[in-house]
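The material for today's practical consists of a large collection of protein records. A record pairs a protein's sequence with a compact description of its fold. Instead of coordinates, the fold is spelled out as a row of discrete tokens. We will come back to this pairing of sequence and fold again and again. Here is such a record, shown just as it appears in the course material.
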Amino acid sequence: MREPALRVFAGEYNESTHVLKGEGEKTPSYVITPLGAKVNRLFIVGVLTDVENVAQEGEMWRAHLSDPTGIYSIYAGQYQPEPAAFLSRAETPSYVAVVGKARVYEPEEGTLFVSIRPEMMKEVDAMLRDYWIVEACKHTYTRMKAMKEAMEMDPPSVYKLKELGYPSLIAEGVVEALSAYGDVDIEHYQFLIKEALAHFETGKIEYMKELGEAEEKVLEIVKKCEGEDGALWDEIVDSGEKEGMERNLVEEALASLMDKGLVYEPILGKLKTT
């Protein structure tokens, strides 16, 4: 059975220092995060910030993908031809979705670095990135609740967590995490969730700035096109698109200008500046 792709923030995944190693060739190994995510595969969405070919010969692409809590390291080479090809032509910054396997590097005993070996990479839009953030918050919160329950048990029990309604994967991961990490700083992960959700406030501020800049451009377009009778709505929108603005942004800028009284509609479907 194929392992599920978990949604885990970089801020949690990168703090992992424990690996549950499978016995035998076909038994999977898992990175166990401090909150008990039992990670074999991940599904992440974020901003691709940089890409570099780090191989002296051939190709081994290293990329960084950021979410609101941190940065994932991603490596793709000849054995991941499609992700490697994607990274070779990817533009930065851009929104990218990744499904990949958890990978670890242990340069010495007691030191562990985690990364992701991508199986699939695809450019996406901001809406999917925002949806992923919300879903990752939900998953993190569920593990956080399970961890709180387990910390109150003596001893922590997979069976009791499953009785409380937690899936086997979460129950097993939480008990393993407590054994490996000891008591977990729950408040730290509460802060990570707040940090992730604060992104939406920042996004709103950035959007308002973008809308303000669009209003200035659209007002100039109306002045150029209005003549004596006014400018047609569609003519204004088409002109805005020719200047590189998205259609919905031009239309929202027009609505905002009308609300502010800077533009009015003397005839249905035509607009003039005041």
The chain has a mean pLDDT of 88. The chain has eight helices and twelve strands.
